[in-house]
Amino acid sequence: MGAYLLRRLLLIIPTLLGIMIINFTLVQFVPGGPVEQILAQIEGEGDAFSGFAGGGGEIASGGGEDGVGRRGLPEEYIKELERQFGFDKPPLERFLNMLWNYMRLDFGESYFRSISVIDLVLEKMPVSISLGLWSTIIAYLISIPLGIRKAVADGTSFDTWTSGVIIVAYAIPGFLFAILLLVLFAGGSYWQIFPLRGLTSEYYDDLSAFGKVKDYLWHITLPVLASTIAAFATLTLLTKNSFLDEIKKQYVITARAKGLSENRVLYGHIFRNAMLIVIAGLPGVFISVFFGSSIIIETIFSLDGLGRLGFKAAVERDYPVIFGTLFISSLIGLAIGILSDLMYVFVDPRIDFEKREG
Question: Which of 85, 205, 228, 344 can bridge 135 by disulfide, Cβ–Cβ 3.0-4.6 Å?
Answer without folding.
Answer: 228
